[in-house]
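Morning run. Coffee first, then this:
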Amino acid sequence: MFKRAVLLMSIVIILAGIAAADEGMWLFNAFPKARVKAKYGFEPTQAWLDHVRLSSVRFNNGGSGSFVSPHGLTFTNHHVGAVCVQQLSTGGKDYMKGGFYAKTQAEEAKCPDLELNVLQSIEDVTQKVQSAAKPGSSAAEAGAAQRAAMSAIESDCAKSTGLRCDIVTLYAGGMFHLYRYKKYTDVRLVFAPEFEAAFFGGDPDNFEYPRYDLDITFFRVYENDKPVDLTDSLQWSKGGVSEGDLIFVPGNPGSTGRLQTMAQLEFLRDTSYPWRLKSLQGMIQTLKSFSAHSPENARRAQEDIFGMENSLKALTGYESGLLDKKLMAQKQQEEDKLKQGVASDPQKKQKFGDPWAEVAQAENAYKQIYLPFIYLERRQGMRGDLAGIARILVRAAVEKQKPNGERLREYRESALASVEQQLFSTAPTYKDLETVIVTESLRQMQSDLGDDPAVVQVLKGQQPAQAAKALIDGTKLDDVAVRKQLYAGGEAAVNASTDPLIVAMRNIDPVARKYRKQYDDQVESVERRNGATLSKIRFAELGADTYPDATFTLRLSYGAVKGYTEDGRGSVAPAGAKLPYFTTFAGAFEHAAKHDNKLPYNLPQSWLRNKSKIKLDTPLNAIETADIIGGNSGSPVVNKAGEVVGIIFDGNIQSLPWNFQYEDVIGRSLHVDSRGILEALRNIYGATRLADELSGSAAAPAKAGAAK
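And here it is:
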């Protein structure tokens, strides 16, 4: 089995030069260097790859970033860092509206619960994980055994290294790699522009091009109350990019479905996406109604609304790919070719069987439990921060008593530190906002599950609004001290608690666990076992490289800076418009004037006030063919010299079907240009200290005790 795992990786590396165009979210330990050299005349060295990897950062709340000075300075998108920005907006301050800038190190403000991860090393543990499943075991038995093996490997790794250790499943179970991360939890806000600048154009311009957004936020990482000293960080480019330049994008793409079977794609198209879109629409409408009551309500709900609207538009784009008959026909043709290759060879047929049929059976099983699973186990029937805290307390009390290998994966020993950081976060919670979120969650669950006993038990004969009010008004889980007491008290304390949210989570936990077990045994385990088989078939039949689907782990994409001709799917530019590779500050002012500087096209006062100081022809946003997806937000755009030339913040609407099929004729990723960032910092925000640090002309930050 070990030899097969090694062979699989060898095929990935050897054949990495065959895939078409600039496609690929490549593993750092299997990057197609020869392919890049053949097309662009540049071959990244191992030292170059290592430096870029160690300079890249994963924001554990769902985005990417990078170190941009040796003194712990890191940056990401505003929409990735906005959670911290909003959490720090207390005491009448609104940093989302007015922006934030720490003029001195002492003013850098600590985020309540942000965790950053830096990938230190990768180890292939495929043989260890796969061999845990005994020959002849069922998919459910194999899945349980492999989960236990993964938890053991991660625990041993964490104890021996002091690092965060996560096993990453690749090729749907064809490979397992152990990723070791340096973890930082003292992360402090340095700079954030106004929301108006970061999301100029609002939802109408989201996933569109041309764009004019300053979607950036800077943080600094500390250890022992002082900025970290880094060996690896990316230098800032003052020259930016030109048409045709080769660029690289290291980041953490969330998930893709390019290697999924037709049965899996049809499940997304027919079951998952329709429910998710309907659910998001209902929640957005509810939050907008809440926001309309007062400016303070609007401030509290702003980040939730932005995130949900972004998800709604992204999912609509993903769905468009699956509704595209041409794309689905191509996917069907690819699958049929693989099937034919197996069916026509008796030896392959005996060796591989029919994994497509087994995956289809798993998807059918998933369809049968989808609604109760998503509402009860995935907590979509009781959303919100406080309900999430209740779930953690109820489950942790039980799971921590079990042997590590028998726990639910999210409560394994190596993951508890991250769970505890989330649980004991001092981030503010707002009971009025929590109430409307839980109300809409319960309404949707009641609508879809009807008189399901679990729903009846939560509602207790009340309407969703009444039940939600009782749950949130009565809970004390907004007090961190109460959470700590319950967590320390374990199962006895949790079982004795009369807190209404704890009681509700306790009551539904048995049935939620039942659906979790069905999913683990009948869906996830079957997909993993057959995913490994399908990976072997693809390599044997196609004889070409197939990078794994995205897993919110570090990958490296590449491409060229390149404009395109609009095809009409975008709403900003008309069909046939030839769009250049960059936009400028002048374009931003023109775009605002075209819309009378009214929401969402209103530039902030800082821009209007300082217009005469700005070099208006400075590039602001730019586009390229680099292969990205959600999770890449905040990824640095790096040139051949390893310098930051920009930061990814979006893709155009034509890039959304990249979730399932890449093309670079019209699909583009978008970045904020390094030149535009420096221009804004110096001439709009007067952020001289930060700009000097980026350009390498600032003194090193003070050491221990300087920041409080």
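The mean pLDDT is 94. Good start to the day.
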